[in-house]
Amino acid sequence: MTNKRTATIAAFIALALALPCAVFAEGEGIALGQAVELTGAALPQQIRDITGIGTGASSWDYLSQKITYGYFVEVYSHFDALAKAKVDKRNGVEDLIISSYKTDNNANIAIADVKFNQDYSQHVMVTEFAQLAARGTQITNTYTMNTYIPHSDGSVDFFQDGLLARVDNQRSVDEVGNVSFKNLYNFVYDQGRRLMMSHEYDRTDHMGNKTHGTFSCTYTGDSVFYGTDQTNANKNYASYTTTETDHTGRPITTTWTPGTYEGKYLRDFTQTTVDAIPGKETGTSTLHRYNIQYSAPGQMVSYYEDGVMVHVEGEDGTDVDKTYTLSRSNITYGSRGQITGYDDIRREMGADGNTDVSTWTTTTSHVTIEYIDTPNQFGNDVEPEASRIKKQTVASKIENTDGSYRNETSVIEYNYDANYKLVGVSGTSTFNGLSSDWIAYADNDGRLLVKTAKRDDKGNMIKDSEGNVIYEYSYLNDNGEFEVVIESSNETSEAFRAAVNSTPMRGNMYNGTSENTYEIFCGVPVIARTDSTVQNLGADNQTVVSVVDTTTANTYGLVNNMVKLLKTVDTSVSTQPALDANGEYATKKTVTTTYTYNNNGYLDKVEGKGTSNGFDYSEETGFNNPFTSDITVTYMIKFDKPLEIRNYEKFTYNNTEGDDTNLIDMTPYTTSEALMAKAWEYYTAKDMSKATQFLSETKNRYSEQAAEQQAGLSGFAPDGKESQYWALNDVGTAEFLLGKIALAASSTSAAKAHFENVINNYGFAQCWDTKGWYWHVAEAAQIDLDTINAR
User: Fold this and answer.
1) For residues 628 and 631, what is the distance between their CA atoms, to the nearest angstrom?
2) How crowded is the C-beta side of 357, counted as CA atoms within 13 Å?
3) How far, in Å, CA of 274 to CA of 285, rounded?
């Protein structure tokens, strides 16, 4: 399929080869251009007879005829101004990827820059054609101020003296079918070189929101619009600046400067973007893209990039060279110039602000994108619409320097009706990984503490004289306020150890899935619901010790005619299959997060509140001491985004009054034999919570008698006398089984303590096997203990 640009160039080149001398006189060209008003129906009979076109279907026929008779129409300089519409179409898909992952609270993918920013395509538009020098001089006289070209999609291009002067109703469609319109005007040219220097534009998106933009640029000294017999056209930017101000009054200014050109190929550039949120912060981001390689003009195949992500002047990120690095390669394109895939290696600075790149988180990604081609509903004078995005797949691995990592593959698929309107989106993810080691903190009164970086009123982390971040260790008091126990940048100091008890906790292997349900809200695909399941594994990396099922429901609304997230409700159920096979002692949690905006549509406040209920667990008593908790999540707003700073759970225990709703009544069981019979029954059925209650009851009742019987032996009881030492046998076996249950739940230290207790205090205990013999409990305990110590 041809279009405005290719038809013109092809027609001219064909004529240049076949009829090098066939031209109208200059005066005839002027008269013809003034007479026909660029409408095919008004073509003189002389032209219709010569060309055989007939009456002509559009003004495009007229222009084609002029080219056929030797005039190259210089109005095609306007592609510098119009080409941005093509790039707008292409960029939509990368915006969609990044918004999808930022909205998904459960995806937890640290791909902060999936968007492919085609600055070369957008700002270094090269028109290549061969043109005779003599013909180039005729162009200035070709058109009058009233010249215009109407196109079949409703847009109209107006020209003055052969240069673009105005564009009305320039139509653009993104990858999901949303249509926007742009008007361009106030064009200023370097008349000597006939290069466009600046213009303004107004864009109206599919929701009716208006944006005003300005564009200005300078060119390298060797840039010219036209070519000669010896040269091709050459247009390279020396700089450009764009400013777009949306309907909220938010200006975003981008300043671009090139580094090195190799002919028409740009090899590196620097870009700075200043984003001013009305009444709030002004954020600045910078990037340097270099070693750019191409598969074709305007299509990068690989590059490197360093930059500083958005920061507010004077805050974190102001005085550093970079906060991320990126290596992107294997970039591929579809037939309409849209990106179909790429590979990324991205490194990002951590929250501590350490500038040593070796300490940064590394994300490796492979992205593939599939499209559905849309038919061209207009004529050949209009660029085809962007292909609709059909499917995107992101496979990523996030690696932290502490050894933790996460693998994830996410797939999003898009469905359209017969008119290529987006009607549905679905997404799925599978993931696995190793979580980071962590530390549980408590004060001397047993209250749980939360560790939070201390920040100033601008949100900057406060550091000590040696550059270490100062942390606050706090709890939620009865007034609903966070009360700081201690501030410290050194957890090994005597002051810290005196005030805070810290318990190291090992990270665990995990795996899971999530499924996203989307809704189309005002033409925008947003995640309405996410259902996810996460399995946490034990020390053997195989046993499932806990399962967390979570449902996240999102509510959206229009704020100042923009789609905004208003509320998120997270509901989760946590179970421990190894200890509670039937899920009777599940922990249930609900957290509601609300988002409040100002009249302009920018975040004013984000707040999370919730509750949970469940049961404590101990090796001694199993699941007991039911609790409820109040959950408070506090945020600060950083450049119109919520930054979580505290997530605190305040527990209230309600079993102190003897509530035995979920505890088994042990009074009917009057002997150790009866208790152990039930313990074995539940243990065999893998109902570890109930088994634990019977085993613990056996220990509580008969441990003193077991100790006496152990002391009365110098070796194992002789054959036939084993049952006389019933207390020793039952308590020793109970202690051993409690160790097995703890080991299955990855409570390694507790399991070790149980096994050591068997060996040291109940070494002569024997257990009857239903197959007809006694086995030595301490020997079995020693095997498991050796396994633990060997890890």
Assistant:
1) 10
2) 12
3) 7
Amino acid at site 514: S
3-state secondary structure of 148: strand
Output the six-digit token pair for 264: 């028409």
Helix or strand holding residue 472 (H, E): strand 471-476
pLDDT at 310 over 80: yes
pLDDT, greater one: 581 or 526: 526
Cα separation, 428 vs 433, whole angstroms: 17
Q: Answer positive or negative: Cα dihedral of 97, 99, 101, 104.
A: negative
Model confidence at 127: pLDDT above 70: no
Closest CA to 345 of 359, 324, 363, 322: 363
- Rounded CA-CA distance 737/757 in Å is 12
Helix (H, G, I), strand (E, B) or coil at 575: strand
Q: What are the angstrom distances between the C-alpha of 748 and each of 387, 437, 442, 536, 680?
A: 56, 15, 21, 15, 22
Q: Residue 455 carries which DSSP code?
A: B
Tokens of 649: 């759970």
Distance CA 163, CA 76 (A): 8
Angle at 87 between CA 82 and CA 93, to 5 degrees: 150
d(CA 440, CA 475): 13
| Cα–Cα distance for residue pair 272/285, rounded to 1 Å | 6
The span from the CA of 182 to the CA of 201, in Å, is 7
**What is the rounded distance in angstroms from the CA atom of residue 464 to the CA atom of residue 686?**
52
- Three-state secondary structure call for residue 36: helix
Q: What is the CA radius of gyration of the chain?
A: 36
CB 157 within 8 A of CB 185: no
| CB-CB neighbours of 46 under 10 Å | 9
> Which residues, other chains included, contact 117 with Cβ-Cβ below 8 Å and sequence gap of 6+?
91, 94
Q: What angle do CA 420, 426, 429 make, to 5 degrees?
A: 140
The answer to whether residues 505 and 439 touch, using CB atoms and an 8 Å cutoff, is yes
- Show the CA angle centred on residue 535, arms to residues 532 and 539, nearest 5°: 160
In SS3 terms, 594-650 reads as EEEECCCCCEEEEEEEEEEEEEEEECCCEEEEEEEEEEEEEEEEECCEEEEEEEEEE
> Where is pLDDT greater, at 394 or 655?
394
**Which range is least confidently modeled, 104-113, 230-239, 288-297, 776-785?**
104-113
Residues 6 or more apart in contact with residue 481 via CB below 8 angstroms? none
For residue 531, report the phi and psi dihedrals to the nearest 5 degrees: -115, 120
Per-residue model confidence (pLDDT) at position 125 = 28
- 6 in helix, strand or coil? helix
How big is the chain, counted in residues?
791
Q: What is the pLDDT of residues 91-122, one digit of tens each?
A: 444 444 444 333 333 322 222 222 222 222 23
Instruction: Supply the DSSP string of 519-556, one letter for each residue.
Output: EEETTEEEEEEEEEEEEEE-TTSSSEEEEEEEEEEEEE
